[in-house]
Amino acid sequence: MAEFVTIADGLRFPEGPVVLPDGSVILTEIAAGQITRIAPDGGKSVIAKTGGGPNGLALGPDGKLYCCNNGGFEYLETNGFLAPHGIAKDYSGGRIERIDIETGEVEILYKSGDFGSVLRGPNDIVFDQHGGFWFTDHGKVDYARRCHDIVGIFYARADGGHLEEVIFPSNNPNGVGLSPDGKTLYAAETYTCRLMKFNITAPGKVAADAGPGGPGIPLYRPAGYKFFDSLGMEAGGNICVATIGECGISVISPAGELVEFVATDDIFTTNIAFGGADMMDAYITLSGSGRLVKTRWARPGMKLQY
Q1: Cα 139 from Cα 88, distance rounded (Å)
Q2: Torsion of CA 76, 82, 85, 90, to 10 degrees
Q3: pTM for this entry
């Protein structure tokens, strides 16, 4: 197992890490409904209270945070581990929020119904070189009503002027990322545990006939009982997918081969982000146990747009 240093603990299901140049990390605490900054020495400060379920997070072209808010989960807590369990009793609707880091002001940029969209559980987000962003909608499971949402993958503009469901249906997509050249969109499906790729033809557009079943091309699927969560990209094009159940990060090549598996000690290993001068500091959210950890990665991560 790789050597990990715990940067912070006591977090309430952390996700969406964003690494800043000063070495601090901003992340979401989904179960606490807040955005938290973690200083290099582990100190915590709350940037904003969003409510609902703040999930994926990214810096936009205006220096503000863009947050996928899934509207909230219920939780089970056993043996010190926290686990999402179905839709929140006070579910507040899926939305995309824009957050001012300095003031903590939270603005709803897009909500369900805007541009004819249905947003149930926005999950992960990535900006492209054109200033727009892709995001996944993971949907909700409602155990009381015995139903599971049919969802998709969206593209939107940062100015609030365009929102489009580009890929529908999708199998409860979670992590999303772009290849270094911006020509390929990757999405990790949780319950099928598939990594899908889509050929981008223009900003916010994918080839409709890339695969036998439509736009998506299945790239990789591991054996065994496990699930994919969020993902991060390496500079060389490998896709690092947080893997629940097996506890760790699956590193997959653009050709669909498993490069390596980096094991952790938390069944809810949910996300990875890169930082440091050489982009080889990997920050991983261990959500079940509420920790942010850091390790040295074997290869540099990809620098994000903003």
Answers
A1: 12
A2: 90
A3: 0.97
